[in-house]
Amino acid sequence: MILPGHIAAAVLCHRYAAADLPVAMAASLAPDVVDKAVYYGTSLSPSSRLPMHTLWGWFGTTLLVALIGLVCARAATWTYAWFLSYGVHLLCDSGLVGDDLPLLYPLVSYELNSPPFPLAYLLDPATWPWPKLIAEAIVVAWAAWIVWRQSVRGQGSARHTNVARP
Ligand SMILES: [Zn+2]
User: Fold this and answer.
1) CA of 91 relative to ligand 1 center, distance in Å
2) In terms of residue numbers, what domain contains 39?
3) 3 alpha carbon to ligand 1 midpoint, in Å?
4) 135 Cα: distance to centroid of ligand 1 (angstroms)
5) Residue 141: phi, psi to the nearest 5?
């Protein structure tokens, strides 16, 4: 998935699994932010999906968040939200939507192909990754519907509150 889908996935983690929203959002964006910055910004990585789109990135950052959470007395809440939302990010980038992840790199060799710049494949309709785009649209529409519904309910209860208080 791309940015809208990962933002939407964090919203769904918050809504359906009670994950802390700011931590879930950070976990959902971190793999792409770090990997794209390292690959396109420094050329130190062989792929735009390394090192964060691996099991080591997932578990290592979860451990780091747990340690920071211990210091801030929020270990359980933050670790759960980070682990869940990061895992959902990897799931949304996985073979389920026609992508490939270097989960066990460097223990397993992968065919590492990265576009010349982020989202370059979207410029040519012949190369559009339809399974990924369809999954993206569904997840974004689902999250948008939830946010819209909460907004409408919030307005309704605010009106009700105003009526109840003279
Ligand atoms: Zn990703």
Assistant:
1) 9
2) 3-164
3) 9
4) 14
5) -65, -40
Gap between the Cα atoms of 129 and 98, Å rounded: 8
Q: How many domains does the chain have?
A: 1
Q: What are the tokens at 59?
A: 């578990």
Band the pLDDT of 165: cuts 50, 70, 90: low
The rounded Å distance from CA 92 to ligand 1 centre is: 8
What are the CA-CA distances from residue 163 to residues 150, 154, 155 (Å)? 20, 14, 12
Q: What are phi and psi of 73, to 5 degrees?
A: 60, 35
**Which residues are within 8 A (CB) of 136 and not within 5 positions of it... i.e. 6 or more apart?**
1, 2, 4, 5, 97
Alpha carbon distances (Å) from 116 to 40, 43, 141: 8, 11, 29
Cα 97 to averaged position of ligand 1 atoms, centre (Å): 12
33 CA from centroid of ligand 1 (Å): 8
The tokens of 71 are what?
């210091």
Centre of ligand 1 to C-alpha 79, Å, is 19
- Specify the pLDDT at position 100: 84
The answer to whether the pTM exceeds 0.85 is yes
